[in-house]
């Protein structure tokens, strides 16, 4: 019951925030309205992904329990997630055209509805329904994420994009706390997740997602440096928007950045779907192994939020003085350390199901596992906040196209990861992550170095 009270308080606080920000707009014209928009955007995403990220983290564990209660059910969590990201990757080529027609706010609202439908499908466990809703969610995810990138870019300037990206990322990753705390307490002492427990978790997650949907419907038009709305009409037809995305994708900078985006997709699928399940399936951790699936998400969230807050408060200063590359290099090092510790701590067969196998640390350490979760979250914040800053700053004239390419490459990688996760052991997955992590860090730095070289030239041209 304390967990339910926490969720009710959270939902009430967000609703009060919505009405408070509307009153601020009316009474205080000097308030930076675009910052209010960013806060409201982050709040809506925090609630929606409180639900979805929690469900993604426990989906394979939940489905494993459903199969024991309902042997006729043959669905697979990794396959569902692979379908979601495959549909998301394909849909991203259409979303610039859709956004040119309906705008980012309506696109995000439609996308949020698909998340609610997907979570509701777990009340009726059926393979066709699970995979069908996975396809629908993939298309909706393309709308909500491309719309988010476009809207965040419209709410930002070159000076505020790093700050706004950090604020949004920190609020988004707070979603890792609430849902996973619910899982931690409701799964306490359970080796099998019964139908009643599953229904409670699904009901709470759907309710929270609906409140997030309401928040997104309250978003207002971004404003320019005064109180006048930003001109959002680019006079781009859907066909032209699609061709523009193709042309941008073929540029040298975007090709290099796409390698970084691929790595972020691989790491996302690993820590959001594979790593938590691997902890829960490692019997040597003890009877609390299933609980640690939820606690793993909490520690990932701590790292994500710490990184988002740090780069949100210091983003403009660090980007101006040192650039984005030191932060990305830091994220790469943190991930390499985490992968090495995971290799030492968890057995190779952990992603496939309950196992009594052991790794090099015997018995496996829950403390080390949670420390790796923190490092994975903090490193992910390093990569993603700087990717957002790069896309929103360098490609500000083509935000929908840039963010569509980002989500496309990231989603293709995530889908591929969930496919090979069903066949490759933990060691092979870690090797892939190490190789792509190093390459992705290098390619991002190459683009950032080129951007740095252009800044003095642009400043001299401006002075002339």
TrEMBL record:
Pfam families: UNC-93. Its main location: membrane. One of its GO terms (cellular component) is membrane. Keywords: Glycoprotein, Membrane, Transmembrane, Transmembrane helix. It comes from the Eukaryota. It is a multi-pass membrane protein. Belongs to the unc-93 family. This is UNC93-like protein MFSD11. It comes from Anopheles farauti. The lineage of its organism: Eukaryota, Metazoa, Ecdysozoa, Arthropoda, Hexapoda.
């Amino acid at each position: 019951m304390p967990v339910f009270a926490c969720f009710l308080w959270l939902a009430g606080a967000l609703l009060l925030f919505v009405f408070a920000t509307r009153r601020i707009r009316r009474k205080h014209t000097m308030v930076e309205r675009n910052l209010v928009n960013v806060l409201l955007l982050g709040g809506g995403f925090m609630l929606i992904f409180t639900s979805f990220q929690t469900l993604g983290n426990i989906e394979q564990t939940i489905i494993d329990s459903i199969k024991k209660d309902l042997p006729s059910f043959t669905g697979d969590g990794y396959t569902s997630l692979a379908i979601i990201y495959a549909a998301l990757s394909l849909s991203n080529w259409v979303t610039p055209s859709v956004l040119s027609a309906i705008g980012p706010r309506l696109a995000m609202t439609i996308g949020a509805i698909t998340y609610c439908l997907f979570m509701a499908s777990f009340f009726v466990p059926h393979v066709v329904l699970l995979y069908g809703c996975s396809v629908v969610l993939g298309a909706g995810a393309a709308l909500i994420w491309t719309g988010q990138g476009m809207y965040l870019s419209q709410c930002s300037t070159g000076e505020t994009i790093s700050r706004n990206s950090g604020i949004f990322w920190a609020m988004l990753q707070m979603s890792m706390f609430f849902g996973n705390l619910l899982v931690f307490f409701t799964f306490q002492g359970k080796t099998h997740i019964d139908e009643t427990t599953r229904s409670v978790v699904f009901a709470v997650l759907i309710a929270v997602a609906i409140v997030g949907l309401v928040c997104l419907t309250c978003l207002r038009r971004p404003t320019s440096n005064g109180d006048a709305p930003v001109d959002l009409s680019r006079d781009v037809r859907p066909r032209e928007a699609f061709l523009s995305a193709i042309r941008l994708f073929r540029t040298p900078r975007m090709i290099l950045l796409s390698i970084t985006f691929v790595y972020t997709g691989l790491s996302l699928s690993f820590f959001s779907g594979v790593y938590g399940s691997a902890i829960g399936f490692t019997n040597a951790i003890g009877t609390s192994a299933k609980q640690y699936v939820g606690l793993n998400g909490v520690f990932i969230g701590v790292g994500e939020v710490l990184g988002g807050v740090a780069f949100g408060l210091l983003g403009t200063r660090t980007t101006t003085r040192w650039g984005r590359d030191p932060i990305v290099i830091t994220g790469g090092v943190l991930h390499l350390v985490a992968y090495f510790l995971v290799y030492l701590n968890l057995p190779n067969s952990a992603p496939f199901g309950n196992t009594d196998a052991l790794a090099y640390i015997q018995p496996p350490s829950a403390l080390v596992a949670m420390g790796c979760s923190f490092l994975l979250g903090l490193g992910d914040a390093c990569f993603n906040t700087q990717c957002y800053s790069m896309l929103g700053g360098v490609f500000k004239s083509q935000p929908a196209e840039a963010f569509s390419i980002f989500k496309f490459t990231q989603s293709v990688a995530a889908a591929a990861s969930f496919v090979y996760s069903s066949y490759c052991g933990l060691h092979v997955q870690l090797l892939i992550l190490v190789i792509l992590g190093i390459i992705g860090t290098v390619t991002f730095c190459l683009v950032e170095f080129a951007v740095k070289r252009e800044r003095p030239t642009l400043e001299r041209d401006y002075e002339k």
